[in-house]
Specification:
It is built from nine helices and seven strands; from the N terminus they run ααβαβαββαβαβαααβ. With 251 residues, it is of the alpha/beta class. α8 crosses α9.
């Protein structure tokens, strides 16, 4: 299924059907990990939730990451098997549910990455609570999710349970003991102003146009950062709040 392929895109092995938009697809993936590297301290222990086929472990290194260790988890056994076959030199990979992280003790990781994962969860708060538990004091959660302002209720992706607005994801994280450090956006979507519809009527594939013109491609990613609330994907850095009584959620 094409949608499922998108959900588990491997940066280094883009499927043939996406070659038409390969520059855009690769930059969407690259931008997330570059943002993570810019906010992760050197020598850190890192957990990625929803690692898919594991290419993020290598991409973190290729974008300048200096972390000490990397562990990736995913619910898909096939994805974890592929990750261990292809990227084992860059980290370790385990099959695990994002809403429960029983294999990890509290205060284990300096940083947790969760890219386009929270919208897949029936109980996203449960996952945030578990992330809080396994993070060390002052640890960072780097999270991205589709912007509800773009996707909303019209999205028919069968793998998504819920979409968040910029304010909603911040409120959810704060309720689970996190403070916002930074927010950004990835890729200013033309659909915000119905431009995609206009170009479609004119017979112009706006997505391919952006993909094929480097100046346009860079412009839309710059606008995504400049106007994060109107970006296709929301991107955040949250910090674990000291003294937050997370135990109340485990009673």
């Amino acid at each position: 299924m094409k949608t499922e392929t998108v959900e588990r895109m491997d940066y280094y092995h883009i499927p043939q059907e996406f070659n038409k938009y390969i520059n855009l697809e690769k930059k969407l993936i690259y931008s997330r990990y570059k943002f993570a590297v810019e906010n992760i301290s050197n020598g850190s222990d890192l957990l990625e939730i929803g690692c898919g086929y594991g290419s993020g472990s290598k991409l973190l290194n290729d974008t300048g990451g200096k972390h000490k260790s990397y562990i990736g988890i995913d619910l898909s056994q096939d994805s974890i098997s592929a990750a261990n076959d292809e990227y084992s030199e860059f980290g370790k990979f385990f099959e695990s549910d994002a809403e429960t992280l029983p294999v990890f003790q509290k205060d284990t990781f300096d940083n947790v990455i969760s890219f386009e994962n929270i919208e897949h969860l029936k109980n996203p708060r449960k996952s945030l609570i578990e992330i809080f538990r396994v993070l060390k004091s002052g640890g960072l959660l780097i999270l991205s999710t589709p912007n509800r302002r773009n996707w909303g209720l019209a999205d028919k992706n069968p793998f998504h349970y819920r979409h968040f607005s910029w304010c909603q994801i911040i409120a959810e994280a704060e309720e689970c003991g996190f403070d916002l450090v930074k927010s950004s956006g990835i890729y200013f979507s033309p659909s915000n102003f119905r431009l995609a519809v206009i170009f479609s009527v004119l017979g112009i594939d706006i997505k391919k146009l952006i993909n094929d013109v480097p100046t346009l491609l860079n412009l839309f990613f710059f606008l995504g950062r400049l106007f994060p609330k109107r970006a296709r994907l929301l991107l955040f850095v949250f910090k674990k709040r000291d003294g937050f009584p997370i135990e109340k959620y485990y009673q």
